[in-house]
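This section describes the prediction task in plain terms. A model, or a person checking by hand, is given the sequence of a single protein chain and must write out its three-dimensional structure as a string of tokens. No templates, partner chains or ligands are provided. The sample shown here is typical of the held-out split.
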Amino acid sequence: MNIKINKFLLLFLQFILFSLLFFVLFNASINYVIFPFAFGMFFALAWANQKVWLLAISYILAGILESPTLERAICLLVCVFCLIVPYFVHVLCKKNMRKWEFAVFAILSQTANVVFDVISGFSPILSAVSVLLGVLFMYACINIFEAVIIRGFTNKLTSLEIVSLFSIIAAFCSGLVMLNIANFSFLKLFMSFILLIFAYCSTPILTMLVASIGGIGSLIATNNPIYVAPFVIWALAVLLFKKRHRIFMIISLICVEIVIGFYFNLYSSFGYVEILPVVISCVVFFALPKKWCDEISVMFNLSKDRLAMKNVANRSREILHRRLGNLSDIFNDMNIIYRNMLKQGMTLDEVKVLLQQEIMEKICSFCPERNHCHRTFAESTKQVFDTLITIAFEKGKATLLDIPSYLTSRCKQTSSILGSINTLTGQYKKYMSMVHDVDTSKLIIADQLLGISKIMTSLSQEVESVISFDTTRENKILDELTYYNIICIDVVVFERDVYTQMASVVVRNEDSEKPRIVDVVSKVCGHKMSVFESFPCSRPGYMVVNLKTAPKVDCLFGVSQKTKNGSTVSGDTYSIVKLDGDKIMFAISDGMGSGKNAEKTSEIAISLVENFYKAGFDNDLILSTVNKLLALHKEEIFSALDIAVVDEKSGLVDFVKMASPKSYILSENECKVVEAGALPIGIVEETKPLINKHVISARDFIILVSDGVSDSFESDEELVECIKSIKTKNPQEFADELLERALACNNGYAVDDMTVIVVKILEF
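The expected answer:
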């Protein structure tokens, strides 16, 4: 029961509010000749999803109260009919009515008014002007209702919406100037309250503008500028105390009203009743909760809050810069510590001396001929020991055949000496292998710590610079998107670096994929922008769309593969990965041999390289670390690597090669050959990749091939001519045709695993 009563009270209050609203606008006019405002507000409220039946009753009641004539009743009924009938037809058809359709029905709703004007001798031109102004007023009201009802009070008004709000205020002032009860001015009641709100919640410029608009609104209705000067003086008075407590603004306004009324006599008449509207509005304004005023201030003065937000963002970046720098230093110190922990292995000469001493103590110390061998024949004995130890290291084992005859003739411990040498060298080789593995592991950890230190330094430098926000462009983007009916509640535009401008817009879910967003942001920013990510906003129903400066080029690619005849799996593995900074990595890993072992080898190598690139390590460190990891493996894992990293922002490509075949850049005029080099990855611990840097342009092709393709041609020149002769511009068709021609060189037989990657460079 209580719920029903509350609903009824709410509807009743809405009915009273709408009736008063329409009554004021029925009195609003231009020179008391043209009355265009009431029907525009009627249609705009219907657009804002207010109850149409309630609006219709309120509209008819207000119109009859303003002019209780038969002609007015007919005009009201025609206007209501032209809204209600098409409105409910669209509801039944479950189809939304568009703005231009509303405009058409609004024009049709005034046919009765136009007919009666013509019959009464009123100028048809003025009648048409009245209809046109009413439609424009409807659009102004719709703009405000979309901003306040749909988006809420927590979003800044655009320039167009502020102009629309001013036109509504002017229309209200035009209607209120005609409504006075015993010298009690409803216009002064309205304008004094509006000026206090604007002075407290918006900028001084907007406050002065709204004061002028209020005076102009009364002027266009009466042709009397009596209120223009008082309203401007009011605005100046309240702005003097804008930064102080609200009570000072109120006192200032009341005092100024008394002075200009009693002392300067700016009004035709002035008494205690005339000052009462200003006093009432001041009391209401003082009673407004601060929370409400803060919400209203966001609509006009969001820049202050956002300035604080931007300062916080830059302060956070400064703190992050320092912390990343400290972390970089920590990881670099850890890298130095690990490198200092490496055990420096003894040289072969030092090992020989050590082993020789140990054998002498173990075997020769109890021999009766010890002094004779190690004194009389000291040099020859030492030479024999050196030779035997060297042979044991090189061949893995020394035998009796390696002992000189003169030693066997006088030494009875040769078998024991051989056994000790072989045992000790074997043990030492195992020990050195273990030490080497431990050192290699420490070196890998040190390399990774160094890499992390470099990444931290890079990130620190990236966040070091202060973000430069562009408020002017933000406002333009907000206005432009609103013009195209894309509801945007916030925009941030800033420069990440010299080459990259970023923009983040918060729009409704249904608007987030509209191409117009990119068009508008690109137009305002002065260069092409592209969307790089979208994600749900913390506010339900909205998406955050992030854009940045579009890269110079884009990539299309095609891949074609053929497994070696007789093998079930391919030893070639390829990877295509999008990296940070508008870079794309194209890579082929060719495991040595074919089949499952080669596949496993290539997958391990390509996976390591791919993940290191994603983490942001540089070329040399990536391949050095991967090489050490594969060399540390007990099984032999060798793989040829062919990598091309395309920088879409700069139009440069880095070719990184380790025992891979040549690559090719095909342009309109020539085919450049990218030379091969370096040993396979994993074959030796220390190897340097061959790195080439090339400039690429739109319509160029980058061709990467495995050795199964390159070896199918008799020479590099033949492969180059084959590439030049392929005419298709589709990268997938290009890759397929190149592979078919390579197979044709061997009568369709794949003598090895074959992989082709073709990348076409496009202008973004």
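For orientation: Residues 290-340 form the longest helix (51 residues).
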